[in-house]
Structure formats: structure tokens, C-alpha cells
Write the C-alpha cells for this entry.
Amino acid sequence: MLLNHGLFMDDWLVLKPRPDYFIDIDFLLNGAGHPIFYSYDTFANWTGAPVAVMVSLAFAGILFGATCLVLTATRLGLLDRAEAAGFAVIVWTYPGYQLWAGKANAVYVFSFGLSFVGAWLLTLAFGARGLRRALLRVACALVFLLSFALNSTIMLYAFVMLGLFIAMWRGADVAHGFVRRTWLAAWRSALSYPELVVLPLVYWGALNIWFKRIGVYAQHYNAHFPTLAELAKGWGAFVAAGYRDVLAHAVRAAIQLPALFVMATVLVSIVVLLLRPGTEPTASRSGRALPLILAAALFFALSSPYVIAGLRPSSSHFYESRHLLMFGVPSALALLALKRHAQRWVGSGKAFAVVFGLGMIVSVGLLWNDYIFLQARMLKQEALTRDLAGRVQPPATVYAVDDGFQNYPARFVPFGLAEVTGMLRLAWGNQPFFGFTLVAERPTILQEMEESRTSPGSAFHHFDPSGPQATISLQPGPGAAPNQILVWKYYACRFLARCDVAELLDQLAKVTIKVGPIAGVIPLDASGKGAEPSR
């Protein structure tokens, strides 16, 4: 994350790669309904170093989130020290979420971390008295509110409130009986912590009154009551992208890049030795079953908002994995249950080393593999931007990229239209550009963009698909190489001075530009409607 300073996908819409780069992020307030997200992005751009700010946010979310997760679990006696540390590592190295190096989505990572910070503050407030209790409760409510920047953390928040209810229930008088005891626990939870009960209601009320989603965003978040078939299909998509594809991807990566997993094994072995798992007694039957039950409950709860909104994750496109950020929690719970079952036969230390150790190796190895892909993709962006900046701008404002790296023997994901348009602005200044990758879009892309940019709350008001056209041919150059080799060369150039980074980028790709109608794309006529596609 420290070495990768590139922007990915929608990062180009909300962050400024340099001070004079034009963006319009009002859509976050007046279209997408993300006021907290808007505040973070505005502050990051105001500093003049938005990439550094966002990387710092991501690191803060990971560090404080993992620390507070460990502290909460051990203070409540839910996990021993080694289990808590292993649990936190699995949660915060979950490779199903591939966008850890993304910049704008660092707000998501930070929000996820704040959920655990809020849980820790609530744990402290529960046992505090007087002014300290009041201050902790205020801080807890504020932290949870900020965590809602990632709206689906509200489901994680619901489980924190369930934990508060259980604490109240356990403290109630057993003589009241189960029903009365449960009712009293619920009442006391609401009466003792009213600010936490109304917090999500206040947040959602504020969004729907002052920051209501409109236009394409109202259509994108198509909230509805799904049928049983839709639920099954949606949950199946999350199982596939969140777990099945992760394991399959890990097997392929280990075969193709065994060195990464060897390094991950060495690192994890050191971590396991430092943790020194104890020899605590075998967990009870409920202690073994409860983590698995919670894993299933959390999986269904965390995926439900996306299923209800009609959104699906994908493991094939790194950006479409953004819905999977929190799904390391069910993974960690499932590993915890497996570890507690295994320790009945081989002991706690060996069970921890095998179960959590293997989980960490898979997570870290696959995480590094994904970082290599994103780093190589960033280098390709820089190579194209450098080449364009060194040219006189052709007489065109609408550009299609014919990306020859699609046929290169390396993982390939085409540039999004925000990325291509952003690179054009970075190279040639703030003009009404519109750019896209041919393989990624339909022939009607110009009509679709015209409709999108004129809709209320659009993020694309400053995109213009109606100008003169040109095609950019981006082909592998003499310095092109598979992702891992390219990234090693880049790091050798950058840190060991074995070559010049600028020269490496110049050799990476060959760029040619042909001015004229874009082949296969339906042009806009004067009314904004489509004509026959160019041949």
C-alpha cells in the first residue's frame, strides 16, 4: 500500500492526482448520498496530498481496527490472546476483498476499522462510571456514526448491539424466568443506551431527508423485497466470490508464484512463534459450535443489504470485490470453530499453528499476488499517461483505447471510463474529454454516457461524449513482462537504482493515435441519439 501510489477506477472521480486536476464531487452529496465519504475526500484533496491521506486512513483503519478487535475479544473473555491475534490477522488480510490498494475506498477500510474501535469503547463504557462513562459513550456514538460511511457496517453494528443485549441478559436476575428476563434485558439496553438505539435511525433519516439518492444512484441501489430465488442466487454469488473463488485463486497463484507463498509461510511461522499459543483446556461443545453459528449468521447478515439492493460481488474484476470487505469476519469465525474442534485431538498450540497458520498463509500469499497485479496495472496507467503527455494533443476529445495487453500472458482487467478520462485530463489538461476502453464497453457507450451525464446527481457532468473522436492503440512494448517480473523490475529501479523508472515506463508500452470515427461505436447525432456504428 505504501509503494502503490496509483488511482484505480472511481478514485479518478473523487481525488486529485495533482492540484490543478479538475473534479466535481458534489455528486457524493447530491446524488449518491455519501456525506461522510464526501467529507473525507474533500479534506484529502484540500491537503494537496490525497493519496497520502487515503493510505494513512487505510493504515489507521487496519491498525486501530485490529488492535481494538483483539482488546475487545480478550477483555470479554471470548478468545485467548493467540486466538484473538490470529482472528484479527485473518479479518484484516482477507483476500476476497482485492481493493486494499484502492485510494477512495480507503474510507471503507477506515469505516470497517471504526466498527471495532466503537465496540472497544462500548466495552470500556459498560464497566465505567461517572464522567468517564459519559465521555466514552459520546465517543462511542461518534465513532459508530462515522463507521456508517460504509453503510453495510450497520449490520455489523447490529451484532454489537446484540452483544450489549446479551451482557444485559446475563446480568439480569435468573429468578425472573426466561421470557421476563429477556424482556427486561431488551428494555434496559434501550433505556441505558438510547443514543446507540436511535443512532442508525437518525443516520438513515438524515440521509433520506437531506442526502437522498437520486438519478442513476436511486436506480443502482434498487432496494426491494427479494424472492426466495433471488435470495438464494444472491447468497450463492457471495459464497462463490467470497470463498470458493478465493480458494481456487489461491491454488492457481501458489502454482504460478510459489515464491510468494514460501515468503508468506516464513512470515506466518514467525508470527505463530511470537504468539506462542497456550495449552488452554479444550473448549466446551457450545464454545466450539457458537463460532460456526455466528459465522453463518454474520455471512447472511452482511450480504443481505447487497442482496436486497440487487448488487452482486465478482472475483474476476478487482473493483467488483468491494462488497466483500467485511467477509473476513465469517472466515475468521469458521477457522476459530475448526481450531477448537482440532485442539481436542492435537492440542491447542498445534491446532492454532495448523488451522490459523494455513489460513494466514493463504491470505497473505494471495494478498501479495493481488498487490502485484494492481501495481503492474498502475505502471501501465503511468506508461500511457507519460506517452500522452509527451505528445501534442490531437484534434479530438473522445478517445477509445484499443488495449493490446488484453492478449498478453498476464492477468488483465480493462481500464474503466473514469480511468481513461482521468489519464487524458492528467496528460492534456482540464478539457471536456471522454475516454473508454473498447473491450470494456458496448457500441452504445456514447449514448449511455450522454444519458448518464445529463441525469440528476450524475458523477459525469464534466464528461462530454459528443466531440471529435480518435482511437489510442496501446500495445505491449519491448519492456513489457508478466506482472511479477515487471513489478520486481520496478522496485529494483525505484529502490536499488538498477535502472531508471522513466526509461522502464517508456519501454513498457507502444502508443499510437488514429484520429477519426471510432470503429464499432455508434456515434452521437445532433440530438444525442445514435446513428449506425462506424466500420
Summary: Residues 348-389 form the longest helix (42 residues).
